[in-house]
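Researcher: I'd like a candidate sequence for this fold, 564 residues long. If you have to choose between options at a position, lean toward the conservative one.
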């Protein structure tokens, strides 16, 4: 609590204070005491810092993010964000929940507990994401209740099973009930009209999957908050920002959802959203408000998101209002980052229960064969990659066979193999893939949304098996093999999703592996790792593959490879 009879701990002089309440700049001094804003003007202070005319604003909040998508630990991830002016995130540990269940959620909570950074959690609502793949856990309402009263758990994460919500399916309703006094995030991009009304009336308050202004406005008119996302795969800000105005501004938040190392290092996090919004015509203070006050008030994070007496002294100092780049970052009144580098420790937390999450038997050549009824030639359903997109198309083509087995030929039709890695039973399914482009090699990863089994694309069985063996040896990660030799690898020892290595290390490693993949013929317009990771997600049209089979997303049912 502020004690007005005592000195301030810190006084900023000659600063331009961003007032997000009145949309103005206040040129004055700013006093901090006990990690809170004490007041404006001249105060006796233990320490005085002359900002020499720099701006100072509330620090930024990412309203929806999956830490795991950065491929680095929570400590490494938050360290990177702090250098960009972000000091608070609302994280959905959906990915690690699918691999490590309750232990994964516990890990995220414990790993972020003592960091100089605020991490709030939304409990994963859909683990497993679908019944069409084998996940590492099943998180029921009864299991999730364990965390609901944690002070850093804000509620229930993105409800991807929107039809289950609309139909009021009992397992979904049970999860909604445990969060009814808290907050519920949405994920319903295609529902409209009465179905949307039913979805929102269940208690859903946000949407981060809007792709059009029309969709955004329909949800705002029904009282939802819209999280404008600028991630690595989904980049919706340029389109949605066109619909933001003074009338609906207070219903808009910023998020990144999934942000990969290269983008975090090169462009940043929520600071990138702010700069892009300003470049698209949003007034700078409005952009800051979206990134701070709006998120704080939407998620009921009291006394943050603005500069006012009693508010947390989570602050960003920068030079240019039209091009906001964090110069200094303060958390609870203490300097944590300066000139893009943290100056305090972001300590690692290791939990053996979430390490080394690959549990498979030995996989043989026979396991990955694709058998047909016909002997020499047959028509087949083939997954066709769409360049620069995560959707796929179903391509039907007659292929060559050898004794009823698919025979690799000189076409660009290769194998896509999924190996279940959670139970030890190691169910295997192999399908056919076109448009990936690899030659004389195979690439595999344990990042395979949403259940994160092992997925491998390759044009020969030997390299496919070599990648599987290497991933098993690493106990999770990404590997590339060519002509029987592992050319490069990235170990992801935290549930096969993350590493404690620095984000710079991961970025450099991925760049090296990208060059190798291109040299092996992976097509331009295809991300050899990201596209591969989403080929096992049976909710993105049109056709996907899981450990249980080839899946028709349009008709929501499994399908045969061979076309009769």
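Model: Candidate sequence:
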């Amino acid at each position: 609590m502020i004690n007005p009879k005592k000195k301030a701990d810190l006084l900023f002089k000659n600063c331009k204070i961003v007032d997000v309440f009145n949309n103005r700049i206040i040129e004055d001094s700013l006093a901090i005491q006990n990690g809170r804003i004490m007041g404006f003007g001249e105060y006796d202070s233990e320490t005085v810092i002359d900002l020499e005319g720099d701006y100072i604003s509330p620090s930024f909040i990412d309203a929806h993010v999956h830490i795991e998508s950065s491929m680095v630990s929570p400590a490494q991830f938050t360290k990177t964000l702090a250098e960009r002016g972000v000091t608070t995130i609302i994280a959905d540990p959906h990915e690690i929940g699918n691999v490590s269940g309750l232990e994964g959620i516990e890990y995220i909570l414990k790993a972020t507990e003592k960091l100089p950074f605020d991490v709030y959690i939304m409990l994963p609502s859909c683990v497993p994401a679908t019944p069409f793949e084998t996940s590492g856990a099943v998180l029921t309402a009864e299991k999730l209740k364990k965390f609901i009263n944690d002070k850093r758990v804000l509620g229930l994460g993105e409800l991807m099973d929107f039809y289950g919500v609309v139909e009021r399916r009992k397992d979904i309703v049970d999860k909604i009930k445990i969060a009814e006094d808290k907050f519920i995030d949405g994920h319903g991009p295609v529902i409209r009209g009465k179905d949307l009304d039913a979805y929102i009336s269940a208690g859903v308050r946000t949407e981060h999957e809007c792709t059009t202004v029309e969709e955004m406005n329909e949800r705002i008119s029904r009282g939802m908050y819209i999280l404008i996302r600028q991630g690595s795969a989904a980049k919706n800000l340029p389109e949605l920002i066109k619909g933001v105005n003074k009338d609906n501004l207070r219903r808009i938040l910023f998020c990144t959802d999934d942000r990969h190392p290269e983008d975090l290092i090169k462009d940043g996090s929520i600071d990138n959203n702010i700069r892009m919004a300003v470049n698209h015509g949003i007034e700078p203070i409005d952009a800051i408000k979206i990134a701070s006050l709006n998120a704080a008030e939407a998620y009921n994070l009291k006394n943050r998101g603005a500069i006012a007496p009693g508010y947390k002294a989570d602050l960003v100092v920068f030079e240019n209002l039209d091009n906001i780049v964090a110069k200094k970052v303060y958390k609870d009144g203490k300097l944590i980052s300066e000139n893009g580098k943290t100056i305090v420790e972001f300590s690692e937390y290791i939990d053996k229960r979430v390490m080394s999450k690959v549990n498979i038997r030995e996989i043989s050549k026979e396991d990955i064969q694709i058998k047909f009824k016909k002997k020499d030639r047959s028509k087949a359903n083939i997954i066709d990659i769409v360049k620069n997109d995560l959707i796929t198309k179903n391509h039907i083509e007659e292929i060559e066979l050898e004794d009823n087995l698919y025979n690799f030929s000189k076409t660009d039709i290769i194998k896509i193999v999924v190996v279940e890695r959670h139970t030890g039973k190691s169910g295997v399914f192999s399908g056919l893939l076109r448009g990936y482009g690899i030659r004389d090699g195979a690439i595999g990863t344990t990042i395979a949304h949403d259940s994160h089994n092992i997925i491998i694309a390759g044009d020969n069985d030997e390299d496919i098996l070599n990648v599987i063996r290497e991933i098993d040896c690493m106990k999770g990660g990404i590997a590339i093999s060519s002509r029987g030799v592992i050319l490069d690898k990235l170990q992801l020892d935290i549930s096969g999703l993350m590493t404690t290595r620095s984000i710079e290390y991961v970025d450099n490693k991925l760049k090296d592996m990208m060059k190798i993949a291109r040299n092996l013929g992976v097509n331009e317009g295809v991300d050899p790792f990201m596209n591969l990771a989403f080929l096992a997600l049976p909710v993105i049209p049109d056709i996907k593959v899981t450990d249980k089979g080839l899946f028709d997303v349009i008709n929501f049912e499994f399908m045969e490879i061979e076309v009769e």
